[in-house]
Amino acid sequence: MQTILEQLKIGADVIKIENNGTMSKYYLRLHPGAKVSKIERCATEIALGIKAYSKPIIRVVTEEGLVIVELLTDPVKLVDFNDIIMSDEEGRVIPLMLGRTHDGEDLIADLAEMPHLLIGGTTGSGKSVLLHSILSGIIMSEKNVKLVLIDPKKVELSYYSNIKQLMYPVITDPDDALSVLSDLVNEMEARFKQMSKASVNNIAELKPELPYIVIIIDEFSDLMHTAKKEFPKKLCMLAQKSRACGIHIIMATQRPSVDVVTGLIKANFPARISCRVSSLTDSRVILGCSGAEKLLGKGDSLISSVGYDMIRFQGAYISPDEIQNLCETQKRSRMARVINYFRGM
What we know:
This protein is an alpha/beta fold and 345 residues long. It has helices at residues 2-7, 36-41, 43-50, 81-86, 127-140, 174-198, 220-226, 230-241, 263-268, 280-287, 320-329, 334-343, and strands at 12-20, 23-30, 57-61, 66-72, 95-101, 106-110, 117-120, 145-150, 212-218, 247-253, 271-274, 300-305, 308-315. The strands form two sheets. Strands 6-5-13-12-11-7-10-9-8 form a nine-stranded mixed beta sheet. The chain has a four-stranded antiparallel beta sheet with strand order 1-2-4-3. A hairpin with a 4-residue loop joins β5 and β6 (106-110). It is elongated.
């Protein structure tokens, strides 16, 4: 790397190298007057010189005065969902089986700590598979969780239409989605009243125990365009206050533009995952920085969250057959399906 920097006339010294898993990290200290922008402009040449499998992702650590150049120096391997499940440890309230970092460590997060998650990525980036892995992991964890699934595309979440964890039938109509969000706002207020009477400030301390509620919205940009005023209003009402009463939201979109991922939504979704996006602008909308436009796709992702310093990971893969088999084991009784049908009317 030092030789390549000198050939490109970039004034920087390599002070440390980390080789873990499939990724190599080069820690650079710039010479006085040297610019980070020159490293960014020469990203392709650096990748060629090292014979990397991807363009470098460049991060600046201002408190240490360093520039970190991350490259994939080995082929990325498929991460099996079942391997991640096997490594899960106790203690997480709502475990999210995300995948494996390029340093070789399994990445399992806790939605209760996030407390809401925003996922972005283009078609073919692995966003939908990641969403299925997250949803399947929640179901398999057998935690006391109820699911609300909103699927404007009408096909992505159809696997889960008969599972017992559903609070409503899978919602595909925008008007029904708004109605359900209104119901959940009422549920949130009712829970706060119950917590106030019991003099507790967290759902975990409440007796009798209430189930956590996880709202999963696939392609929420369709809802944003259908109901530009009502949907963001209801969504932000939930996102601002619902953490303490055990309601959490996961949203995904393949169009992370500024008119979809508004400033208000970003403020209420501190945890974000970006699969590959089409432009630098989209990366900045989702993550607040560049990097997502240089990902490889097919599950290669970046996570930015409380407790995570922009980690790059390979999303876990779960096949359609595995999803169907899982849903078969989680089927509701016939009576529960009838009750849920009328509840959703």
